[in-house]
Design a protein that fits this description.
Layout: H1 2-9, H2 24-39, H3 43-53, H4 57-71, H5 77-87, H6 92-105
Helix pairs in contact: 2-5, 2-6, 3-6, 4-5
């Protein structure tokens, strides 16, 4: 009688709410993902997406595991697997959101806006950078 009761006690257990501490490889993958999001200036849509899928992050990780054989044909299978394992943890979404904010706040070069401004109408002194 003791064995079924102990099983039932843990049947619906969830992880504690401590912050997730990813492995060094998982941290590297998450940082790369966050920097790519910054490079594409997609921080706001990424935050919105992360918050909207927060309740289903474990299910999303299982979907990633399902597609792993196909994805392994075109990309780094080990990194993909590590990312899927990372997403299985409750704190993964919080970690990604925090890292996005940290990278953006730190002024990471990936997040800088280096677009060229076209000053064809001239500056405040009436001169133009284009020699006219």
């Amino acid at each position: 009688m003791g064995a079924p009761v102990s099983w039932w006690r843990h049947a619906f257990a969830v992880e504690d709410s401590r912050p997730l501490e990813p492995t060094p490889r998982q941290r590297q993958i998450a940082d790369h993902l966050c920097r790519e999001i910054c490079r594409r200036r997609m921080q706001t849509p990424a935050h919105l997406f992360l918050e909207s899928v927060r309740p289903m992050n474990y299910l999303g990780a299982q979907v990633l595991h399902f597609f792993e054989p196909f994805i392994a044909l075109i990309t780094d299978a080990e990194g993909y697997r590590e990312f899927a394992l990372f997403l299985e943890h409750r704190g993964a979404i919080d970690f990604l959101s925090r890292r996005l904010e940290e990278i953006e706040a730190a002024g990471d070069p990936a997040c800088r806006d280096d677009r060229v401004v076209d000053d064809t109408h001239g500056g405040a002194d009436g001169t133009s950078k284009h020699g006219s």
